[in-house]
Amino acid sequence: MESKSSSSNFIRNIIMEDLEAGRVKEVVTRFPPEPNGYLHIGHAKSICLNFELADEFKGRTNLRFDDTNPVKEDVEYVESIKKDVQWLGFDWDGLFFASDYFGKMYEKALLLIRKGLAYVDDQSADEIRASRGTLTEPGKPSPYRDRTPEENLDLFERMKKGEFANGEKVLRAKIDMSSPNVNLRDPVIYRIVHAHHHNTGDAWCIYPMYAFAHPLEDAIEGVTHSICTLEFEDQRPFYDWVIANCETEAKPHQYEFNRLNLTNTVMSKRKLKQLVEEKVVDGWDDPRMPTISGLRRKGYTPEAIRAFCREIGVAKSYGVVDERMLEHFIREDLKLKAPRTMAVLRPLKVVITNYPEGQVEWLEAENNSENEELGSRQIPFSREIYIEQDDFMEVPPPKYFRLFPGNEVRLKHAYFIKCEEVIKNEAGEVVELRCTYDPETKSGTGFTGRKVKGTIHWVEATQAVPAEFRLYEPLIRDEDENEENETSFLERINPNSLETLQGFVEPNMKEAAAQDKFQFFRHGYFNVDPKDSEPGRPVFGRIVSLKSSFEVGKA
Ligand code: ATP
Ligand code: MG
C-alpha cells in the first residue's frame, strides 16, 4: 500500500504510546457499520483509519455489522458494504454481526440486574424522556427504580418470552439520575421490539440499545481502540461504565474523531436513502451520489479515495472539506493511467474540400504524452470530420484562436485546416463548415513553415462511434450563507445536476469496457458507465474536468 500519511492523526500517537507502555500487545480495530444503507465517502474515512492503523502496527481489523435494530436493516446493505470495503482495498480479519452476540449481551444484562445495576421500568418512552431532566436540572427517579433484583430478573425474563407489547417495559441501567452527563441518567439498555431480524429471525423480541451493545461487541472481539465519530464523545462515560461493570475480559477504549463533511453534498444514510426512494437519483450508485458505489460508478479509484482520506487527516475539530479536494486526487491518480483520446460532445460537421473523396489515412496518436508506456494508437482521417461546436465562432471575440472564417488551426494529431465557408440552415444556425487542409502540416513530420495559435480536437466522421456523454454537477447545493431560514436539503437539489449529450468518440473506443477510464482532450476524465453502456454504444460519464481553481495545501 501507499506510503503513510504525513497528516495529523492523534489516534496513531495514542496507539504508539499504548504499545510502548505495554498496555496493548496487539492493536485490534473494527469498522462497525449499521446495515441500514450504502456506505458513503464519510465511511471511507473511518474505514481507511481503522484498517490502515491496524495495518501499520501489524494488528487486526474486523468488519462488524452493528445490526441491533431489526426494523431498518437489510441483507442488501450487508452485501453492498462488504463489496465496498473490499473494493477500497481492505481485507477484514473477522466478519461479525452484533446480532451473533445477543446471547452474550443478554447474559451481561442479567449480570447487571443481579448486581443491582439494572432495573425494569414500566414507564412509557414519553414518561422516561420527561423525567430525564435537563442540562441544568437533575432527572427524577422512576417509581420502579427500587425493584429488587429478583423482581427484575423475573420481569426481564418475561420480556424476553414475549409477554409484553412493544414499549410496555424497558430495562434501564441504574446509574445516577442527577449526573451532569444526561447519558448516565439511567439509560435504557434493552427494549421490546416484536420484529423479524435479518439475521436472528424471530429468536428475540428484546433488543439491546446501541450504547449498551457497542462496548460489549468491542469487548467480545478484543478490540483495543474503538474509534468513532465525535457525536459519541458524551457517550464515552457510559461506554466506560459498561466495560467497568460487565466484567468483560478485554477492556476496550473509545476514541472520537471528527466526521468528514464535504461541500455541496449530504452525508447521512437517512438523507441518501430519501434521494433513492424519492427517485431523485437512479439508485444508491448514481454517479452523483457521495456513496462509495456512486463514486465507483462515476469512475473514482480506490487509490484516489485512500489518498484523499490520508490527506484530510484525523482531528477533533469540526470542519467541511472542499469537494474539489476529492476531485484533485482522482485527477492525480488518472493523470498517468488514463489514455488521452478525442471525443466530440457537441458535434459540428466539417468537410475538408481539398481532401480526396473516399480516401482514409491512419494517423499515429500517442496515448498519453506524459506516460510513454501507454503507447500509441491509429486513428483514421478523411474528408469528413466532427469538431466541437464551440471550437467555431462566426464572429470571434478578441483572443479567440480556434476556428472562424479565414482562420487556420491545428487538428490534434493531424493537419492544419482553414475555414473557408460556413453553411447554415434555414433558421440561420451553423450546420457545417467547409475547410481546406494543408498536406505539408501533417503532425509528426516536423513541419515548421508557419505557426497557428489554436489546436482543436476532432473525430473522423465515417467511422466515429456514437456515444452518450453525461456531465455531472453537484446534486445538492450548499446553503446560501445569507439565507435567513435553514433550507431542507430537498429544496437545495440542483436541477442541472445531470446533462446528457450525444456525440462521437474514436472508432477504437467501440470496444471500451465498463469502468474503462479516459481523458478526453479538453473535456476531462470520463468513465465508461457500467450500467448503461452497451457494446458498440458506450456511455461515458464525466468523472472530473481537467482543471480546477483549487490547490491542495493552499485552501
Ligand atoms: P449515517 O448518519 O450516515 O448513517 P452513521 O454514523 O449512522 O452514519 P454507521 O453505519 O453507524 O453510520 O457508521 C459506521 C462507522 O462510520 C461509524 O464508526 C461512524 O462513526 C463512521 N462514520 C459515519 N459517517 C462518517 C463520516 N461522515 N465521517 C467519518 N466517519 C463516519
Ligand atoms: Mg446510524
TrEMBL record:
Span of the annotated motif 'HIGH' region: 33-43
Pfam family, one: tRNA-synt_1c_C2
Subcellular location: Cytoplasm
Matching SUPFAM superfamilies: Nucleotidylyl transferase, Ribosomal protein L25-like
This protein's record includes keyword Transport: no
Binding-site residues for ATP, renumbered to this chain: 34-36, 40-46, 229, 259-260, 267-269
Domain tRNA synthetases class I (E and Q) anti-codon binding: 455-529
Motif range ('KMSKS' region): 266-270
GO MF, one annotated term: ATP binding
Keyword Cytoplasm (UniProt): yes
Record-given protein name: Glutamine--tRNA ligase
Organism, scientific name: Cohnella lubricantis
Name of the encoding gene: glnS
